[in-house]
Design goal:
The chain has about 300 residues and is mostly helical. The chain is about 75% helix and about 0% strand. This is S-adenosylmethionine uptake transporter.
């Protein structure tokens, strides 16, 4: 056995996990800022200015790889589908948080790992055994305990949140399938998709913004662009089915930022839910590492 190769592979997976966690933290900042901005500006206007902010992050990367790389795309149909899914994810998220508490919308997004696990099983051939399936569902129960969804679960805003979470889950899976495409190219095209959609939605819904508001929308794009790059890279280093449950860390970041910026102190129910989520994620990570060290012919067909 080549132990150096095994060690290198393990380091890449660990790097993917760390990049996903950092990307999730940046997305939590994006979520809080987005809810603050959407209270005063239309979804379309935010998408437009946010896209320019993303290009501030992307421009050096695009210049370094050459603009011609943007047009050398693998699997064009999947690229188009990914652009549609990422745009739906962002637009529907902002549409939902305009009417619902942020915690309610994030509850829908916490179901993303369940969708990803199922999709990855069939679409990527990443076989998930019953133990990790169970851990994903236990983690989702923890989310429900912590966030206590409101009674308005089947309103249009709730449907927006559900649709956005499905778009986000498909984006994760497609990012793994398109891992031969550079990070800058993937994020550049999804940003162009958001910009085009924002221009259409902002027709008749554009209002003047203060310097602070405009800077906040640009920062929103820069933070989101950086987070997308981190998550896109992480999906090239580790399997989507392993990284998906780490999305539960968004709840941990939300609790920390809520206390830091708004003085919110989590109650016992949120703490219990958070512990369940973290333990479920750690179990999934443990099972992945354990089964990677076991010969495939020694693993039962249904038992990862």
């Amino acid at each position: 056995m080549n132990f150096s190769r095994v060690g290198t592979g393990g380091n890449l997976v660990l790097a993917g996990v760390l990049l996903m966690l950092l990307g999730d933290f940046m997305f939590s900042l994006n979520d809080a800022m987005g809810k603050w901005l959407v209270a005063s500006f239309s979804v379309g206007q935010i998408l437009v200015v946010r896209s320019f902010g993303s290009f501030i992050v992307l421009a050096p990367m695009i210049a370094r790889q050459g603009s011609d790389a943007l047009f050398r795309l693998e699997r064009p149909p999947l690229q188009i589908l990914r652009i549609v899914m990422t745009t739906a994810d962002v637009a529907l998220f902002y549409a939902a948080v305009a009417y619902l508490p942020l915690a309610d919308v994030i509850t829908f997004y916490m179901a993303g790992p369940i969708y990803v696990a199922a999709i990855s099983h069939f679409f990527l051939g990443e076989r998930i055994g019953w133990r990790r399936w169970l851990a994903v569902f236990v983690g989702f129960i923890g989310v429900l305990i912590a966030l206590r969804p409101s009674a308005a679960m089947f309103s249009w805003p709730s449907i927006f949140g559900l649709g956005g979470s499905l778009g986000f889950a498909l984006t994760l899976v497609l990012g793994r399938r398109l891992r031969q495409t550079s990070d800058a190219t993937l994020v550049a095209w999804q940003t162009l998709g958001a910009l085009a959609t924002g221009l259409v939605l902002s027709i008749g819904n554009w209002r003047s913004a203060s310097t602070l508001d405009f800077a906040a929308m640009l920062a929103l794009g820069a933070i989101a662009g950086g987070a997308h790059l981190l998550i896109t890279r992480s999906l090239k280093l580790a399997p989507a089915s392993l990284l998906a449950p780490l999305q539960y860390s968004l709840l941990i970041w939300a609790i920390a930022l809520g206390f830091l910026f708004f003085g919110d102190i989590p109650d016992a129910q949120i703490i219990v839910g958070s512990i369940i989520i973290v333990l479920a994620g750690l179990f999934i990570f443990h099972r992945k590492n354990l089964t990677d060290g076991i010969p495939k012919d020694a693993v039962a067909k249904d038992g990862h």
